[in-house]
Design a protein that fits this description.
The protein is an alpha+beta fold and 170 residues long. It contains four helices and nine strands, in the order E-H-E-E-H-E-E-H-E-H-E-E-E. The chain has a single domain, classed as Alpha-Beta Complex (Cyclic Phosphodiesterase, Chain: A), CATH 3.90.1140. The strands form two sheets. A five-stranded antiparallel sheet has the order 2-6-5-4-7. A four-stranded antiparallel sheet has the order 3-1-8-9. GO terms for molecular function: ligase activity.
């Protein structure tokens, strides 16, 4: 079981993105994430105690402003196809949640939503075909602590705890 913090896109954004992804070519070796598992990763904690991590997150996220964000543009990490996340407050929320901290190799925080994983390089046509995708803007009213468990049927995700974000104007 691995733990991470995330923001969940609203239903309208998930439906819009599912429609866009549904029109992409199905290429051998590409394992697409299920829409119900889509999330914007804030920080990854790895194998950790859920109760302790939730206690660590509570004071860091308390009072954090709710970011106004959108999904747009596509890119790749090693064997990962993702959509970029832009907007006011998402980087600050990621930093508050511990992005760039120990456990993720000290990489700079890049908000993203993973769409697919591959065994080899991501086919270059996929990020090109998604380059123009832009979701509606939404306000993320909460961050969540999630756990992921790999099994025979793929990775399963579950929300461990929800952290409301401040709706006060920025």
């Amino acid at each position: 079981m691995a733990l991470f913090s995330a923001v969940l896109p609203p239903v309208a954004v998930v439906e819009s993105l599912a429609d866009a992804v549904g029109h992409l070519p199905r290429t051998a070796g590409v394992r697409w994430s299920r829409p119900e598992s889509w999330h914007v990763t804030l920080a990854f904690y790895g194998q950790d105690d859920a109760t302790a991590r939730a206690g660590w997150l509570r004071p860091r996220l308390a009072g954090m402003p709710a970011p106004r964000i959108r999904l747009e543009g596509a890119g790749t990490f090693t064997r990962v196809l993702y959509l970029g996340v832009t907007g006011e407050g998402i980087a600050e929320l990621g930093l508050a949640a511990g992005a760039g901290a120990a456990g993720d190799g000290g990489r700079a925080y890049l908000p993203h939503l993973t769409l697919a994983r591959t065994r080899a390089a991501v086919p270059p046509e996929l990020p090109r075909l998604l380059a123009g995708y832009r979701s509606e803007v939404w306000t993320a009213g909460e961050a969540v602590l999630m756990r992921s468990e790999r099994g025979g049927g793929g990775t399963r995700y579950a929300v461990v705890e929800r952290f409301p974000l401040s709706q006060q104007a920025r």
